Amino acid sequence: MSNQKYTAIIQCCCSVFLLLLLTSSGCEKDDLEDQSYISFEKPFWVLLDVEQVPTEEQQAIRLNLESELEQYYTPEFLNKYLTKVYVYSQLKDLFIGSEFDGTLHYSNLFIKAPGNSMHHELAHVYHMKNRSLLNQQAWEDLNTSAISYSSSGVTYVATGGNSYDNLSYDSLRRAGFFRHYSTSSFKEDYAVVCEYIFSKDFQQNAQLIADINSKYPKLKAKINMVREFFEKIGLQEPAYLQQSFGDYK
User: How far from 3 is each of 6, 12, 14, 16, CA to CA, in Å?
Assistant: First the structure.
């Protein structure tokens, strides 16, 4: 092997090691109160086409997202599952060229301002680390035979949807799905349920909550599976769930 090839291999290995170090470091925080989880910077290793949030908008977004993290998650939970939340005005994949609202890399979240997808992406993180505690087969058994997961969230975004996009929301929810994107994969279906659970709009949507209790038993069953999953991983569910949907066991 020539010296040039050997040097190139060494440089490549060093680059990979540096990337792994950067993406895994910071998971343990010595002083959570002195360090913000929210960032508007772009790490050099991120392969995304992003547009920065205007400086004058950053403080309000930071305060809102930090407030939501404090409201729903304990410092111990965040220390275990979250490294950083990067926020941008626009997110686009460099390879498929599609815009999207959020993605993640290990415990780093990348979301589009104002940050509505934060809980969705974080739900992926704590699911990946606790897969065995959420019964995927039992979840999929709830789905109607007329709808099967199409592929993945990435494929759904890249192709602009799937064959179920013409279904009404009523039809979707009777089948056990909050929205069309939920039909892309089990992982996205689960994350969308988590997204709704933490959404202020959903918490204040008395009509949809009433419909879930009366017309959408499959969707209610998925909500209750997530609630049980929360208990297993030590995540306190939002207080409104007990009042809105009763006991889940």
Answer: 5, 14, 16, 20
Q: Residue 46, SS3?
A: coil
Q: Would the pTM count as exceeding 0.90?
A: no
Neighbours of 4 (CB within 10 A): 8
User: In this structure, which amino acid lies at residue 87?
Assistant: V
Kindly report whether the peptide bond that precedes residue 54 is cis, defined as omega within 30 degrees of 0.
no
The DSSP H or E segment spanning 105 is: strand 102-105
Which of the four pLDDT bands, split at 50, 70 and 90, describes residue 53?
very high
SS3 category, 110? strand
Chain-centroid distance, C-alpha 17: 26
| 78 closest CA partner among 88, 86, 90, 66 | 66
Q: Is 112 strand, coil or helix?
A: strand
The Cα 146–Cα 144 span in angstroms is 5
Residue 206 to residue 60: CA distance in whole angstroms: 28
**Orientation angle between helical segments 55-72 and 118-128, nearest 10 degrees:** 50
pLDDT tens digits, 72-93: 999 999 999 999 999 999 999 8
CA angle 128, 130, 135 (to 5 degrees): 100
Cα distance between residue 169 and residue 190, in whole Å: 17
- d(CA 75, CA 235) in angstroms, rounded, equals 11
